[in-house]
Model the fold of this input.
Amino acid sequence: MARQYFGTDGIRGRVGEHPITADFILKLGWAAGKVFAKQGKKRILIGKDTRLSGYMLESALEAGLSAAGVDVYLLGPMPTPGIAYLTQTFHADAGIVISASHNPFEDNGIKFFSCSGEKLPDETELEIESWLDRPLETVAPALLGKAKRIDDAAGRYIEFCKNTLPFSASLAGLKMVVDCAHGATYHIAPEVFTELGAEVIAIGANPDGLNINKEFGSTKPLALQSKVVEVGADLGVAFDGDGDRLIMATQTGRLVDGDELLYILARHLKEKGELTGGVVGTLMTNLGIELAFKELDIPFVRAQVGDRYVMAELQSRGWLLGGEGSGHLICRQVQSTGDGIVAALQVLHALSVSDMQLDTYLQGIAKMPQALVNVRTTANKDALLRHPQIMQKITEVEERLQGRGRVLLRPSGTEPLLRVMVEGEQEEEVQMLAEDIAELVTQIAG
Done:
């Protein structure tokens, strides 16, 4: 049974347009409350990023959950992984995140965590959707859910992040730029690194409800790169709006993506003898990273794009480490979900233990040029992927690459986009081929 509203990362859309409207989100809160209450679960946490629309959606969810007889604990602005952690420590039955991650402020979304701090299984999301078709019925007045605000949520999560490192670990002597994307990490990430001894220059840390991800953060890294060079920092880190993505910049301003950070984490664990099994990447992981893992004798497999699929592959194999080039990095030995701050700490610890600069640690990688072109379309993406002309074009490009590269078309799970990726040995060639395919897709999509 196909999901009607839930995508790869919850429910997402433009605020004021269905389904991100006050009335629908109220009904969603009620539906989720009915599902959890039916299981005997009646305590749910709600956190959000810094979007202005978060106030409206938070109130709507609170009302819907209360109508279903579920108690609500409000966390305020909090990174997505922080909500996953606090869901566990408060012994809550579920956690709800109000965020559209790296999208602009006009968008927002809702995603859920289970009591174990992991994404809800598909069957639970489908059950929630089934309740959306029923009339909203409020429980008896004496059974309505209560709401309480948690005042020390940020402090609890800060301590958790610090404790993912050995007690003796220190960032003393490290000068770093921290870009918070004007998002949910703005009051947490700078504190974490400062309390561990680093000299922190924070940017993108003044949210106003409208500037989340605007010219700052992991998807707009130029500000980070420039600031690192300007202040002579050792490196820089950038998160996205909800804090589950991480990218870094070297002291020369070179960008280090999630693929490369995954390599650092895997190599460090391998050298310590603490790498369980291998590493899970995605269909988008650069071929050069796969070859680098092979050189280190580290098993590597690819999952579908999306951190939920990376997590599912890790769980099925009993492995601990996985991630995406976009910066979703899962370190299951210390956190139940992708966590930008925690991943950054693991990378910084690896650099400290090895006494290496970021540039030096990456010398074992020879990444292949990879071109990515997004085609914005509201057309049926599955039909486009099966279109004979597009399939023929992909075959022609693959034949031209002669086994020295890859072609991948995939729909975005969070935006109305079809992503075209071509990977090969020559940068100009793969960019041209990706644009050729994208042009054909655009023409056919109309």
